[in-house]
Structure formats: structure tokens, C-alpha cells
Design brief:
single chain; binds uracil; 21% helix; alpha+beta; Alpha-Beta Plaits; Structural Genomics Hypothetical 15.5 Kd Protein In mrcA-pckA Intergenic Region, Chain A; four-stranded antiparallel beta sheet
């Protein structure tokens, strides 16, 4: 038996939080009975689960690695008409949702899926998935600054958890962090007076950007999906 909102999220109906809202709003029925209780458990193989009277079914789950190019927003749509990541995906993938977000002027690896359960897990602060970035800076970065970046930086919304930082060449560092706070890398660098010239995410847990070109996507392998679900990095 599983929680109703978990099953709805996995079936691609909506994120787990949105599914909870649907339940509370009385839009979800199990075997013909409206259910408003969030803790309700169901048997996904036997129970008939409907949303607004429409049967839900096991979704064909899709997992993509996408190379977000510069100057587009990580959103399904934009009221201001700016380019979004969805402009780069074919019609068949327009129902997918981004897992987390990258800034307008950040490039690199972004996952997209219709697996609401995995999205919930990865974006939950307790999951602490490793995120690695290449950070190009306007000025050189010293040993002390690398140590501070790796050790954790005190930001206005609290200290960042320890990560890793190494110099690749003058003006280019590789930084690994575990959280996904708003503009986290830029704020960490800013607190050390290190203006960021360019920012690219090159990995997210076990998934690597490698040679995927900007604006292009690829399907994750089954091994990558399994590792992502396990929270393992290889
Ligand atoms: N950190 C940032 O500052 N921006 C991003 O887009 C991702 C991480």
C-alpha cells in the first residue's frame, strides 16, 4: 500500500505537493469515493484512482538530461514572453517538468521528467544531491578563498553546507555543493568579492553533462535512473 499523493505524482498527474492540493480540494476519488485525507493509502495495482473523474494510469516515465543554454528561463512558460527551456524540446516532451532550476544566465545540466516522485525527492533539502559547477571568475582565486568555498559560506539565509572547491586554471574553479538555494553559487562567490563571469553546471548526482551541446537533450540510461533514485553517485 502506498500514499495516494505519491502514486498520483508517480503517474505524472502533478507534483506531490500539487497532488496533495488536488486531494484536499476533493478532486481525487478511490474506487468511486472522494478522498480528502492526505494520509490515505492505496493499492496502485488494484484501486481505481480518478482525478476529476478521469482514470489515472501508470505513466510512461521519461527522464531527460538537457543542456540549458544561456538566456532562457527554467520555467514551463513565461508571462513576459521570454525564451524558456521548453522552446528547445519537441512537442512530445512539453509535459515534462524541470527538476530544480538554473538562472537565466547559467548554462548546463538540467534534468526534466514527468516522475513527480523523483522530482520531489531530488529537490527536497534532505536529499542533498551533489551539484558540480564550473565557475569562471573575473579575478584570480586564492587558496584561502577555495578553502572558504569548500568549508561553507555564511549567507543571509544561513551557512552553506561543506562542499568541494578546486582550481582548474587561473580564473576557473570547480565547485561542488549539496544544496540548491536560489542563486547559491553566485551569492557564495559574491560574499568573497569574486564576480562570476560564467557559470555552468556539469553534474547532478550521478548524471554528467559531458559533451551534450547547448539546447540539446538525451534520455537517461536505466542505470543513471536507478542511481539517481538510490542517491548514489556512480
Ligand atoms: N547557483 C547559482 O548562483 N545559479 C544557478 O543557476 C545555479 C546555482
Amino acid at each position: 500500500m502506498e500514499r495516494l499523493q505519491k502514486v498520483l505524482a508517480r503517474r505524472g498527474v502533478a507534483s506531490r505537493r500539487k497532488s496533495e492540493e488536488y486531494i484536499a480540494a476533493g478532486r481525487v476519488a478511490v474506487n468511486g469515493e472522494i478522498v480528502r485525507e492526505l494520509g490515505t493509502k492505496v493499492d496502485p495495482d488494484k484501486d481505481l484512482i480518478t482525478v476529476d473523474g478521469q482514470a489515472t494510469a501508470k505513466a510512461q516515465l521519461v527522464y531527460l538530461a538537457f543542456h540549458k543554454p544561456l538566456y532562457c528561463i527554467t520555467s514551463k512558460s513565461d508571462p513576459q514572453g521570454r525564451p524558456t527551456i521548453m522552446d528547445f524540446l519537441p512537442p512530445a516532451y512539453q509535459e515534462l517538468h524541470p527538476v530544480g532550476r538554473l538562472d537565466w544566465n547559467t548554462e548546463g545540466l538540467l534534468l526534466l521528467t514527468n516522475d513527480g516522485e523523483l522530482t520531489f525527492k531530488i529537490t527536497h533539502p534532505s536529499y542533498e544531491i551533489e551539484k558540480t559547477y564550473l565557475v569562471w571568475t573575473e579575478t584570480g582565486v586564492g587558496k584561502k578563498e577555495l578553502e572558504k568555498l569548500a568549508g561553507g559560506i555564511n549567507l543571509e539565509d544561513g551557512p552553506t553546507s561543506p562542499g568541494r572547491a578546486r582550481l582548474i586554471e587561473p580564473g576557473l574553479i570547480e565547485l561542488t555543493i549539496h544544496e540548491g538555494r536560489n542563486r547559491q553559487v553566485r551569492r557564495m562567490m559574491g560574499s568573497l568579492n569574486l564576480p562570476v563571469k560564467r557559470l555552468q553546471r556539469i553534474s547532478l548526482g550521478p548524471i554528467e553533462l559531458k559533451d551534450l551541446s547547448p539546447g540539446k537533450f538525451r534520455k537517461l540510461t536505466q542505470k543513471e535512473i536507478n542511481n539517481l533514485k538510490k542517491g548514489s553517485s556512480s
